[in-house]
Design goal:
Shape: globular
Number of strands: 3
Helix content: 40-55%
Distance between the termini: 47 Å
């Protein structure tokens, strides 16, 4: 589906500029793609992942918590700079976001507690390699986009569609389609109580 949309947009751009005579995508039957559910991490797995990270790779915590507790996309978190975090918000310009629009996300007390840990870095190099090493050390496998999917699922249960949509930069309709009833209210409350261990 995404490839079709991309190709159609390219051909339409060419057609409007009279580079081609018609858009070859017009009249193509769009295939029906079966719905695929998202994968999220359970609260115990999130705790294990973060505890392992806090003990062995504290510099990586900033990358993880900006996704799982603030709803940034993985690429957005990787590109985030310390200068993007100030005055209680994460402020990303359009050049740092997927949809090329500014995003301003309030930092919750939970997120602030993780970001305040010693050794935490914002952004950084070799993120994917370091995440693979963390998964091996923690025994927690992270399916594709599971950190962000987890944020959306737990946040939707805790704060509702409008607040979650603003934070995740998605539409409420998309949130309900993918994340409704993925977690219980009890699990969502447990998610909101995941805080760093002070004695590690």
């Amino acid at each position: 589906m995404n490839n079709y949309k991309f190709a159609s947009s390219v051909f339409n751009w060419c057609f409007k500029r009279k580079i081609i005579k018609d858009n070859p995508c017009i009249g193509v039957t769009i295939p029906i793609v079966p719905f695929k559910g998202v994968s999220i991490l359970t609260v115990p797995k999130i705790r294990t992942l973060l505890e392992t990270c806090q003990k062995g790779s504290p510099s990586l915590i900033g990358f993880i918590v900006l996704v799982i507790f603030a709803g940034l996309r993985v690429a957005e978190s990787a590109r985030c700079l310390p200068s993007n975090i100030a005055n209680g918000v994460i402020d990303l310009g359009g050049d740092s976001t997927k949809l090329n629009i500014r995003r301003c996300i309030k930092i919750t007390p939970q997120l602030a507690a993780w970001l305040a840990l010693p050794g935490v870095e914002i952004g950084g190099k070799h993120i994917h390699q370091r995440m693979r090493e963390l998964q091996a050390a923690s025994g927690v496998t992270i399916p594709k986009n599971a950190l962000r999917h987890s944020f959306c699922s737990y946040s939707l249960e805790l704060y509702g569609a409008d607040a979650t949509a603003r934070a995740a930069n998605n539409s409420p309709a998309m949130l309900f389609r993918h994340y409704a009833a993925m977690v219980s209210l009890e699990d969502a409350k447990a998610f909101s109580e995941i805080l760093p261990e002070v004695n590690l």
